[in-house]
Design goal:
There is one protein chain. This protein has 149 residues and is of the alpha+beta class. It has a single domain, classed as Histidine kinase-like ATPase, C-terminal domain (Heat Shock Protein 90, 2-Layer Sandwich). The protein is 29% helix and 25% strand. It has a 5-stranded antiparallel sheet with strand order 1-2-3-5-4, with helices on one face. The longest helix is centred in the middle third of the chain and has 21 residues. It is globular and about 40 Å long.
Length: 149
């Protein structure tokens, strides 16, 4: 199956999903930390500490980007979908922003910033951007055999 097929935001992904949750978080400066804590709690009993740390870093980076660039304000929300299947964790962070075309490969900017996409590219197994209804940045992280549910 192609990784792009079956977005969680469309309530369709993999039939072997053992966990799937949708979070709606107020778009304020505390959103990245709240999402990271919630995702850690959600996945904590299912994946190892290294993978849990990496997923937490990536989801907080994407939520930070949604708040900064996605026209998310305190009165609006960032929608985060998290799912776990036998071999992979998938996370989608969606906002009503205008979208963007990701650079290939992402590079940190000399003036600072831009490291979120660099981390996403290096720490995920796959990632992409969907812009048909707002912006949804997603990533997948393969589970090592020892951490599979």
């Amino acid at each position: 199956m192609k990784p792009e097929r079956g977005f969680l935001m469309r309530e369709s992904w993999r039939p072997d999903a053992v966990l799937a949750r949708k979070l709606e978080i107020a778009g304020d400066r505390y959103a990245p930390g709240r999402v990271r804590a919630t995702v850690n709690e959600m996945l904590g009993g299912h994946v190892g500490p290294r993978l849990l740390f990496d997923v937490g870093v990536l989801v907080s980076e994407l939520v930070t980007n949604a708040v900064r660039h996605g026209r998310v304000q305190r009165a609006s929300t960032v929608v985060v979908h998290v799912a776990l299947a036998q071999e992979v964790v998938r996370v989608e962070v969606c906002d009503q922003g205008p979208g963007f075309t990701p650079p290939r490969p992402p590079r940190a900017r000399a003036e600072g910033g831009g490291n979120g996409l660099v981390l996403l590219d290096r720490m995920s197994s796959r990632w992409g951007v969907a812009v048909d209804d707002g912006t949804c940045v997603w990533f997948e992280r393969d589970l090592p055999p020892a951490e599979r549910p």
